[in-house]
């Protein structure tokens, strides 16, 4: 349902931003612009949306049971206890349990600890796509079409290559585009002080 996907998009988006922002903040000397307070507020959003995503996971099972649809019920039971149970519980652990560490202020305000938690969130969101796609296709309506997905060398290389493409584009952006929006920063900077004494002396 729509709120689930909106919460998931915000959840994964904030986690990816924190994952990239903390190293960029260290490497490019942006600590005076991107403060711990900014990162802490982002982590609060992550724990809130992560809790929403966990609630949505539970609601999915409830609706499958309450609806009484035999096929839908089998699909969700197969996700949690079938051949791909390892992928499902990896998804739940990374997306629901890992963000709960942000309830602790020490983790929420420690740059490298928050990066570790956000990497787990990124892994969990990748597994969510894997679970939705692969488990649904591995158990079709016809038992004769059932199977178990095994990635080929091409699949693995394309997956690794996607990381290379992403980080290449990210570094090119950091090199040629402004990393911080000047218009937004200008509004919170202190106003400059004018030298009225020199102006008054010139008028005489």
State the total count of DSSP E strands: 0
Q: Name the shape in a single word.
A: elongated
Largest sheet: none
Discrete helix count: 9
Poorly predicted ranges (pLDDT <50, ≥5 residues)? Answer: none
Mean pLDDT: 85
Question: What does the secondary structure layout of this molecule look like, with pairings?
Answer:
Layout: H1 2-27, H2 36-67, H3 70-81, H4 85-97, H5 105-108, H6 111-138, H7 153-176, H8 182-186, H9 196-203
Helix pairs in contact: 1-2, 1-6, 2-3, 3-4, 4-6
Summary of the model, kept short:
This protein is mainly alpha-helical. Helices cover 75% and strands 0% of the residues.
Describe this structure in words.
With 204 residues, the chain is an all-alpha fold. The chain folds into two domains: 2-144; 151-189. The protein has helices spanning 2-27, 36-67, 70-81, 85-97, 105-108, 111-138, 153-176, 182-186, 196-203. Helix 4 packs antiparallel against helix 6 (111-138).
Fill in the keyword field for this structure.
204 residues, elongated, 2 domains, 9 helices
